[in-house]
From TrEMBL:
<feature type="compositionally biased region" description="Basic and acidic residues">
    <location>
        <begin position="406"/>
        <end position="426"/>
    </location>
</feature>
<feature type="region of interest" description="Disordered">
    <location>
        <begin position="398"/>
        <end position="426"/>
    </location>
</feature>
<feature type="domain" description="AIG1-type G">
    <location>
        <begin position="1"/>
        <end position="194"/>
    </location>
</feature>
<dbReference type="InterPro" id="IPR006703">
    <property type="entry name" value="G_AIG1"/>
</dbReference>
<dbReference type="Pfam" id="PF04548">
    <property type="entry name" value="AIG1"/>
</dbReference>
<dbReference type="InterPro" id="IPR045058">
    <property type="entry name" value="GIMA/IAN/Toc"/>
</dbReference>
<feature type="coiled-coil region">
    <location>
        <begin position="196"/>
        <end position="353"/>
    </location>
</feature>
<comment type="similarity">
    <text>Belongs to the TRAFAC class TrmE-Era-EngA-EngB-Septin-like GTPase superfamily. AIG1/Toc34/Toc159-like paraseptin GTPase family. IAN subfamily.</text>
</comment>
<dbReference type="InterPro" id="IPR027417">
    <property type="entry name" value="P-loop_NTPase"/>
</dbReference>
<dbReference type="GO" id="GO:0005525">
    <property type="term" value="F:GTP binding"/>
</dbReference>
<keyword id="KW-0175">Coiled coil</keyword>
<keyword id="KW-0547">Nucleotide-binding</keyword>
<protein>
    <submittedName>
        <fullName>GTPase IMAP family member 4-like</fullName>
    </submittedName>
</protein>
<keyword id="KW-0342">GTP-binding</keyword>
Length: 490
């Protein structure tokens, strides 16, 4: 088996060994190739393998090359007699070359180093320099030769194929094979000797164990006889159980048929359910489309309602502003009413005081008339007193009392009527305001109920109706006030 890096002359070396061109020299070998030939009454088999990348190539060796090198060893069944590691004499050999050679040779197996021989090509390039000096010049190359147990050979490319250099190489290969075989047989001899010693010791131990085993065998025989008897009983029981098993198998067969029928029924129900699911899916699709249409309509309605809500909010805000103004007017009117009530109270007090003064004046006048009458009666004789004059004075006194009493009643009636008129005047603005607000609310409700009309038209009509209702209530109240004033005396 020939191995080595690329472009070192592996295929040429194979042709030199076989004495003819069995390998394509000058071309890159892509896979392992096996060739045979007869050399000096020997049948030689040579396997050429692809070369790995040398130190001048920065790329790693492809995995396919590693596989081909491993498979090349299998072509030399059971194993190669020699592995020729090809190295050029006219090139340097560095640590990189050594590490790559070691890595690739380890792919072949652990025993490769006992079969490896370093084959130097281009030996004519050394000239007068001995190969040993060339090996000592490169420590990495010295390591490789030592690893191969100092086995190496030189090929001169100027020599023809075959010849003495090939014969010497084959002799070195035979020496390697014999050396490996002798080492192998010597190793086997010592292993056999050690095994014999172990066998002698083990035979004695085995003899003792055999005696023990014979005793154990007697016991085992008795135990076996007992067990055979038990086995016979067990066989009888098994026969009964076999009958039961047959019955169970028949039952299981019937159950399997029932299960098959159930499965068929399940398949039919499954198909019907699938059809129902398809129909429901269609119905759901229709419902979804309908829902989308209804949703769109609802969104449109919501938008319209929001617009109406916005318009009504504006109207309500305007009404709130008006109500606030009315409240302000109410507050001003209440202040005026307070002032008027204060003036009325002052007038009533003044009238009451005037009435008291008039009563006092009438009382004084009555006292003066009585005093004057008493003076007349006391100074004049009885027959000279004019009865007609006395009667006249008494009538005047009664008239004066009656007039004073009527004046008091008329003043009380006037004060009560003025108080009722004031109360009605205070209630009238509230009635007016309440009527206006009630009319506006009723108008707004009427406008919202009128669906055929638009929101703005309905609201306008409702407001107009509310204003008309408020104005009618106000006119009614003013007519009532005018009637009260006409009924009151001057």
């Amino acid at each position: 088996m020939i191995v080595g890096p690329r472009l070192v002359g592996k295929s040429s070396s194979g042709n030199s060994i076989l004495g003819k061109k069995n390998f394509e020299a000058g071309h890159t070998t892509s896979h392992s190739v096996k060739r045979q030939g007869d050399i000096t009454v020997r049948q030689v088999t040579v396997v050429d393998t692809p070369g790995w990348h040398g130190r001048y190539c920065t790329e790693d060796t492809p995995e396919i090359v590693r596989i081909e090198i491993t498979q090349g060893a299998s072509l030399c069944a059971p194993e190669p007699h020699a592995v020729l590691v090809v190295v050029r004499c006219d090139e340097t050999f560095t640590e990189t070359d050594r590490s790559r050679a070691e890595e690739k040779l380890n792919l072949i197996g652990r025993s490769v180093w006992s079969q490896a021989i370093v084959l130097f090509t281009w030996g004519d390039k050394l000239g007068d320099t001995a190969i040993e000096l060339h090996i000592e010049r490169w420590p990495a190359l010295q390591w490789l030769v030592d690893k191969c147990s100092n086995r190496y050979h030189v090929f001169d490319n100027t020599c023809p194929a075959g010849g003495p250099q090939v014969t010497e190489l084959l002799e070195k290969i035979e020496e390697t094979v014999v050396g490996n075989d002798s080492e192998h047989w010597l190793k086997m001899y010592w292993e056999l000797r050690e095994s014999n010693k172990k066998l002698t010791k083990s035979s004695e131990e085995i003899g003792r164990r055999l005696e023990e085993e014979e005793r154990k065998n007697d016991k085992l025989k008795r135990m076996i006889e007992e067990k055979e008897r038990k086995v016979e009983e067990i066989d009888k029981r098994h026969e009964k159980k076999d009958g039961m098993l047959k019955e169970m198998e028949q039952r299981n067969t019937m159950r399997e048929k029932e299960i098959e029928d159930i499965r068929m029924e399940y398949e039919r129900e499954k198909e019907s359910l699938k059809q129902m699911c398809v129909e429901k899916d269609r119905a759901l699709d229709q419902m979804e489309r309908k829902h989308e249409r209804e949703s769109k309509e609802l969104r449109d309605k919501i938008e319209n309602l929001e617009k109406r809500k916005f318009e009504r909010e504006e109207e309500l805000n305007a009404m709130i502003v008006e109500i606030q103004e009315l409240q302000e007017n109410k507050q001003r009117y209440e202040m005026k009413e307070v002032k008027i009530s204060m003036l009325e109270n002052n007038v009533a007090e003044f009238k009451q005081q005037n009435k008291v003064r008039e009563d006092m004046i009438n009382h004084v006048k009555m006292k003066e008339d009585r005093i004057q009458l008493h003076r007349v009666e006391s100074t004049a004789p009885a027959d000279m007193v004019d009865n007609s004059y006395l009667k006249t004075q008494n009538r005047n006194l009664r008239k004066t009392q009656m007039l004073s009493q009527k004046d008091g009643e008329r003043q009380r009636d006037t004060a009560g009527r003025e108080q009722r008129v004031g109360d009605e005047q205070r209630e009238t603005p509230w009635l007016k305001v309440g009527a206006a607000v009630l009319g506006a609310v009723v108008g707004a409700m009427a406008g919202s109920v009128r669906a055929p009309l638009s929101a703005a038209t309905g609201t306008t009509i409702g407001a107009a109706a509310g204003i008309l209702l408020g104005s009618l209530l106000i006119q009614k109240e003013e007519a009532r006030e005018n009637k009260v004033e006409s009924d009151s005396p001057d």
